[in-house]
Every structure is written in C-alpha cells, then in structure tokens.
Specification:
Helices cover 63% and strands 0% of the residues. The chain has 181 residues and is mainly alpha-helical. Helix 6 packs across helix 7. The longest helix has 37 residues. The protein is elongated.
Length: 181
C-alpha cells in the first residue's frame, strides 16, 4: 500500500470511530437535534395562537366588550332580538346590559364578562347555542341578584309577606321587563 492509501485508511478509521462508540451515541445526537428545534416549534405555536387570537379579537370587535356600551352585545347577530327588545323596554333609560347581567364588583364583572365571552364565542363559532337564546343558571342568578339590589324596597316588602315560603324569583314573573318582546 502507498503512503497516501495508508493515510486515507487511517482517516476513515478516525471518522468511523465515534459511530463505533455505541448505539446510545446516535440517539444522543438525535435528541440534541430535536432539542434544537423545540424552541422553533414553540415559537411557531405561540405565533399561531397569538395570530388567531388577534384576528378573532379584531374580527369580533373584542375591545368593545371591555366597555359598558350595550350595542356591543349585538356584535353577534344572534343577539339582535335581545338588543332590540332592550331598546323598547322601560329599563333602557336606567340600565344597560352590564347593569343587569354582570356583578357590580370590578373583579366579578370582568370575570363574568370573560367567561361569558369565551363560552359565547365557542357556542356561536360551533353553532351550539339554543334557539331561542336562553340564559344559563349562573347568569340567571346574577340577573336575579341585580333585580333584588335595584328594587330592594319592593323585594323586601314582597319577601316579608311570604315568610317561610321559598324565595320568589323576580325574573320568573317579570321575564320580559329588560327585553320587551
């Protein structure tokens, strides 16, 4: 063999040695490769979430839900009937949507708005909402407590006459007061 061939054989032996060190060595390299692409995958996933969330927030006029403007409730066409009913009601002069349908504490109001916003968006996007629209039990409790708070003197007089009986529901008897149909 010539010296050049000897050098080539020696070089080939040196480059082949790391692979010959054991099967775990190849897996370690593959793990490092995956670990290197993990930040990229995470950035792509976060970017997609931020992009879709931002688009949805702009498309659905999300900032309007942070305010107390009743017209925001009609951003979704399914609520047009409720909004039109509120505009014809006697409560229009004294109460907006949040006055009756959100707690009167800062935290309670925005937790309720965020929760309702998420579930309303989910229901309207997937088409899984009752027709006609129905209030859920949690929101019904909020609305009932608001009635009792605003009309405390009347409620106290009525509750006083019915001692021992189950508490009467304002909303059950006065269902269309806030949304005249």
């Amino acid at each position: 063999m010539s010296q050049e061939q000897d050098r080539e054989a020696e070089e080939n032996t040196r480059t082949a040695q790391p692979a010959a060190e054991g099967p775990g060595r190849g897996r370690a390299r593959a793990g490092r490769r995956w670990a290197g692409s993990l930040p990229l995958a995470l950035c792509v996933a976060l970017g997609a979430i931020a992009g879709l969330g931002g688009y949805t927030f702009v498309y659905a006029k999300g900032a309007s839900y942070l305010e107390d403007e009743p017209s925001a409730c009609a951003n979704c066409h399914i609520m047009n009937e409720q909004f039109a009913g509120w505009q014809r009601s006697s409560h229009r002069a004294v109460a907006g949507c949040n006055d009756c349908h959100a707690p009167h504490t800062f935290l309670g109001k925005y937790v309720t708005k965020a929760t309702n916003g998420f579930w309303h968006s989910f229901a309207f996007t997937t088409g899984r909402f009752p027709d006609p629209i129905r209030i859920n039990p949690g929101n019904l409790r909020v609305t009932e407590e608001t009635c009792r708070s605003c009309h405390g003197d009347i409620v106290h007089a009525i509750d006083g006459e019915h001692r021992g009986a189950p508490r009467l529901s304002c909303v059950r008897c006065h269902e269309s007061v806030g949304h005249l149909h």
